[in-house]
Amino acid sequence: MMNxxxxxxxxxxxxxxxxxxxxxxxxxxxxxxxxxxxxxxxLESITRFELxxxxxxxxxxRMKWARFPFVKSLDEFELKGQNVLTARQLSQLRELSWLEQxxxxxxxxxxxxxxxxxxxxxxxxxxxxxxxxxxATMGELVxxxxxxxxxxxxxxxxxxxxxxxxxxxxxxxxxAMDQREANLFFHLINHLYERSSIILTSNKSPDExxxxxxxxxxxxxxxxxxxxxxxVIHGGEGEESHRMKNRKSIFSAEV
Length: 255
Fold this sequence. Notes:
Protein name: ATP-binding protein
InterPro entries: AAA+_ATPase, DNAC/IstB-like, IstB, IstB_ATP-bd, P-loop_NTPase
CATH architecture of the largest domain: 3-Layer(aba) Sandwich
Family: Belongs to the IS21/IS1162 putative ATP-binding protein family.
GO molecular function, one term: ATP binding
Strand order of the largest sheet: 2-3-4-1-5
Organism: Jeotgalibacillus campisalis
């Protein structure tokens, strides 16, 4: 009779969409009997169990949707021997206040200095904090935009990008765009503007992007949106433009 009641309760939990609790119910009941839990303690245990399982599934889902090419924590990032970020700046970025305020980050510099590593590391921090993140190289992004009209897979991925809290675009402007590609990219940036934060990595300064986009009007429109609230982090030598020098920084003054 007892087993039948447990099975009935499990079915009822499943109907309530508490599948994890349904599966674990026999184990939870045995633990409750062994520990002489009160009714309240038993209910609290079930609630904590279900919430923990849901958070684990939610985290797994966010990690899958992020599509990171590799997973490495910023705890493993070697600060020595690089000139991209100071320890204090990295600590400030990891607080994610810039993401909550919908700031963008642009990581500039030659290959091999850790731009992608930092971008993915910050993306991981965001995923762990409950944000929706999407990673794509510029080449992948352009192909998604060009095929959205006729490929359902591209529609699904772009819907996730447009709904993401943080979009990471790696190797921005590594290749020239034609007019259609530039227009599609602008419309995406325009949609994300003041809805999401964007992290861009590039080995070319924004001053050079116009040469690759080929349309000064579109370039200006893209820059206006990307640089409205932005932190530009240089990982190499090079002069900043007047526009870059006069932007508002998210970093507090060094002491």
